[in-house]
Amino acid sequence: MGMAGHSIDTISEDGLRKLADERHIEEALLASAARALDDWEINATEISLVSHSENIVFRVDSDSRQPFVLRFHRPGYHTLPELHGEFQWTAALNRSGIGAPVPRLSKDKRFFVPLNLPELSQTRFVSLVEWVEGTPMATLIERETEPSRLAAYFHKVGSLAARIHNQAAAWQVPPGFERHAFDADGLMGSQPFWGPFWQQSNLTPAERDQIVYARNRIYSLLTDYGQDRRTYSLIHADLHPGNLITTGETVHIIDFDDSGFGWHLYELAVAISYYQDTPHFEVIRKAIIAGYLTERTLSQSDIQLLPVFILVRSMVSLGWIEQRPELDSSHKIPTLIRRSCEQSRALFGEV
């Protein structure tokens, strides 16, 4: 039998060539990872590729008892000062008692080291953080069918989000701190951070008109909503349960790559948007708000804006996919377009 249980004659010549290319690139990336570890003087016993998406991520086991995450950062997504901003904030979160990534300095006292990757014809910044053992909360949620247990998980997510925002709203960012912003321009402006989603190539003219109409309405709404510290600060911006690692009652947050300035309601929308077509979405929505309110206030008018931010997440995700064709997330596009148009009509009416 060949790959994945197929006889060898069912795999085309192009398919075999693609498999060979992927294996070659993976082997080259593993060799580059081993080379990168020289800068941290880590004696690796095993290096495994965990993710090859916009960032390339490895797990590194070493002769110490502490495993590590080695990350090759996506070129062009963040400047070096912005990368440093991520670690400045995660250090502050850790000091406040919120479990966030713990980076390691290289032997020459750098958090980010440039590395030439000939296999990709790129130079990328590389960083090393401590690996956290545990189970992604998303895995636990996938196994759960009891509404009360689902509510308990999302109550915990809401409480954690509020604690993050409490820290961020009170924190004085250090001089020179830089990070992108999911503000009105960053989400709905003429050059949004994740790209012009209304130009997504799969949109019909009618769908594009509906989404452009929603974009204009939301831009005005966000501008009016303002950026008061009560509702806007640094946010994780990708706080879905897949980025929450659980060990017993302890929850550790990973992947601050998208973190930046933004609205607290956007944080909550991101956390629950994946589940909006599931039977218990209303239970999930109520639970995350209830959990949030145990640690931080939200006014009723704030809560009423949550559907708008759920729509925002669907719309900007269209731009994210369009800008990253190499990740082959095209299977998500029909659902995102449907949600964007249906929710736009429900909130703002038909064009």
Question: What layout of secondary structure does this protein have?
Answer:
Layout: H1 13-36, E1 44-52, E2 56-62, E3 68-72, H2 80-95, E4 113-117, E5 122-130, E6 135-136, H3 137-142, H4 147-170, E7 181-182, H5 184-188, H6 205-225, E8 232-235, E9 244-247, E10 250-253, E11 260-263, H7 264-273, H8 281-293, H9 300-303, H10 306-322, H11 333-348
Parallel strand pairs: 7-11
Antiparallel strand pairs: 1-2, 2-3, 3-5, 4-5, 6-9, 8-11, 9-10
Describe the protein in words:
By secondary structure, the chain is an alpha+beta fold. The chain has 2 domains: 3-130, Phosphorylase Kinase, domain 1 (2-Layer Sandwich); 135-348, Aminoglycoside 3'-phosphotransferase, Chain: A, domain 2, CATH 3.90.1200.10. Helix content is 44%, strand content 16%. The protein has 11 helices and 11 strands. The chain has helices at 13-36, 80-95, 137-142, 147-170, 184-188, 205-225, 264-273, 281-293, 300-303, 306-322, 333-348; strands spanning 44-52, 56-62, 68-72, 113-117, 122-130, 135-136, 181-182, 232-235, 244-247, 250-253, 260-263. The strands form 3 sheets. Strands 1-2-3-5-4 form a 5-stranded antiparallel sheet, with helices on one face. β1 and β2 (56-62) form a beta hairpin. α4 (147-170) runs antiparallel to α7 and α4 runs parallel beside α8. It is globular and about 60 Å long. The termini are far apart. The model is unreliable at 1-11 (pLDDT under 50).
Helix-strand string:
HEEEHEEEHHEHHEEEEHHHHH
Low-confidence stretches: 1-11
> How many distinct domains?
2
Main beta sheet: strand number and arrangement?
A: 5 strands, antiparallel
Global outline: globular
What class do helices, strands and sheet pairing give? alpha+beta
CATH class of the largest domain: Alpha Beta
Please compute the radius of gyration using only Cα atoms. Answer: 21 Å
Tell me which CATH architecture of the largest domain applies here: Alpha-Beta Complex
CATH T-level topology of the largest domain: Aminoglycoside 3'-phosphotransferase, Chain: A, domain 2
CATH superfamily of the largest domain: Aminoglycoside phosphotransferase (APH), C-terminal lobe
Tally the helices: what do you get? 11
- The fraction of residues assigned to DSSP E strands is 15-25%
Strand order of the largest sheet: 1-2-3-5-4
- Strand segment count: 11
